[in-house]
Amino acid sequence: MPFSEQHASAACNFFELILKHTQDEWYGKPFLLMPWQEEAVVQTFGLLDSAGNRIIQMVYEEVPKKSGKTEWAAGLALLVLILSVEPGCQVYGAAAATRQAMNVYRAACKMVEQSPLLRKRLRIMRGTNRIVKRNDPDSFYAAIAADGDFGDGVNPSCVIADEVHRWKTRKHLENWDVLTNGGFTRRQTLTIAITTAGVQSESPLAWRLHEKTRKINDKVVLDPTFFGRIYGASVDDDPSSPATWIKANPSLKENGGFLNIEKVRQQYVSHLAEGDLSSFKRYFLNIWDQKENRAIDMNLWRACRRDWEAAGWPLPHDLLSRFVNRKCWVGVDISMTTDLSAVAAVFPRDDGGYDVLPFCWMPAATLKRRQVQDGMPYERWVEEGWIETCTGRVIDNSLIKARIKYCLEMFDVQEVCFDRYNSREMSTSLVDEGVPCVEIPQTCPGLNEATKKLISLVATGDLVHGGHPVMAHHASCLCTTSDGNDLIKPVKPDREKDFSRIDLLAATIDGLARAIVFEDKRVSYTELRSVG
Are 123 and 131 in contact (CB under 8 A)? Predict the structure, then answer.
């Protein structure tokens, strides 16, 4: 990508030469960017396209509490307002509630008051919670609450969204869409979301941005317009260790910041005395509060492409030929509307590993909406052939049945393995046609062995999937839950609150559940109930 050192330096210089801090012992001192802040500023304002427009349109920064988010957000709002050469520049500093939005606004006002240059160019209008350009009153920075009504005049050039883990209600999410999509007619727009970790089940917006950031950084998906960083410890790190505190907090002095590590130590001791470290882990180690455990290391998943890799879908003849007439088990995971429906052909290998051929479908009418909600490039995946679409808003099960019959003709299918949900009609009709079908119980005892086998195969590089990007996305979302007796199963995402998808992994596990039974010769066919 083209990089402009001039633009990046100008943005950094605005902070360090013009802005001053507004709180405590740092009041009146130059705003020297910390390394994590400088990286975001340089990437956001330095990456330009051939027309000189910013490439980055969305920034997501997830940092622990007391990392200097409020003042940085205030500086970013003033930076965009001052740098903009377009008339009518609208910069919004938005938070879930008025109080939080006003914290950023008050910091911005103090920054303007301390700078002769900013006082000359900007006017503070506290009665309307705005800062306007003197030579263009239609250009302004306004503090707003995301639970309010914005009216018809919102045409953002830039949105600074603070503490998005608190954007939880339907009104918050609706206003997020208004703010992030309201400026689509402008030459360039920018949204910067800053937050501390939240509760996965309660913070759908922040979790969606968290997951997109993680997947981009893990190279699961590609979006050159998105810049994101997550600073935090992992669930396996020792919360009592100073090394963990340093890892999680980019604003500590040890990381080039301002925060004394003793402040973190005091918080740890205080929470330890109360007998509950959950708040300490969330606010000061930036660990999301969640009950499920992510199952797959994506570095290991990418290594599973070692034997063959698909250049596109459907497979070219030379790759498809290696699967013809091979013994396999076909797993099926059927949805109705919002989810993908998935089929996975699972092929045992002579070396003890498995090959997987995945197929999936989405309703065409909901494709764009799902792409926005999930933050995944579904339209591109459809164009490249990785996802098949069904006309309308509902999955056409006849297409899935046709794919199953395709597998029956091409491969040596031993069984078709169904999750009973939404599948009884199709499985019954296949049984009537003489196809051996098995219902896989969606319980910990029913899925434990296959789930653990899948994780083990990925860890050893013996589950070969050809680099299917939709399957990689689903692998990155796979979490497990336990029944307390060392039996596990995949967690089905809550479709109303969670934008994760695991359908192709669910279909693979269903197929693997029967494949490993056959391979181990430990359970007879009659021990699992045929559907019919």
Answer: yes
State the alpha helices, DSSP H only, in 84-146. Answer: 98-114, 116-121
Q: What is the 3-state secondary structure (H, E, C) of 399-464?
A: HHHHHHHHHHHHCEEEEEEECCCCCHHHHHHHHHCCCCEEECCCCHHHHHHHHHHHHHHHHHCCEE
* CB-count exposure of residue 425 (10 Å: 0-12, 13-18, 19+): exposed
- Distance between CA atoms of 143 and 95, rounded to whole angstroms? 8
Q: Side chain identity at 17, as an amino acid letter?
A: L
- How far, in whole angstroms, is CA 116 from its chain's centroid? 42
What is the β-pairing status of strands 122-125 and 130-133?
antiparallel
DSSP secondary structure string, 144-210?
Answer: EETTS---S----SEEEEE-GGG--SHHHHHHHHHHHHTTTTSS--EEEEEE---BTTT-HHHHHHH
Amino acid identity of 110? Answer: K
Classify 293-527 by CATH class: alpha beta
23 three-class SS: coil
SS3 472: helix
pLDDT computed for residue 527 by the predictor: 37
pLDDT digit string, tens, across residues 156-193: 999 999 999 999 888 898 899 889 888 777 888 999 99
CA angle 119, 68, 373 (to 5 degrees): 100
Average pLDDT over residues 482-491: 87
* 512 to 174, 260, 406: CA distances (angstroms): 41, 51, 19
Instruction: Report yes or no on whether pTM surpasses 0.85.
Output: no
- Nearest Cα to Cα of residue 529 among 436, 457, 460: 436
The residue ranges of every structural domain in the chain are 5-231, 237-290, 293-527
Amino acid identity for residue 252 in this structure: L
Q: Is residue 461 predicted with pLDDT exceeding 60?
A: yes
β-strands 122-125, 90-95: how paired? unpaired
- CATH class of segment(s) 5-231: alpha beta
The first and second tokens of residue 427, run together, are 């499985």
Long-range (24+ apart) CB contacts under 8 A made by 170-176 are 171/146, 171/147, 172/96, 172/146, 172/147, 172/205, 173/204, 173/205, 175/94, 175/146, 175/147, 175/148, 175/150, 176/146, 176/205
Q: Does a cis peptide bond (omega within 30 degrees of 0) precede residue 64? A: no
DSSP string, 303-338: HTTSS---SSSSPPHHHHGGGTT-EEEEEEE--SSS
CA distance 85 to 72: 22
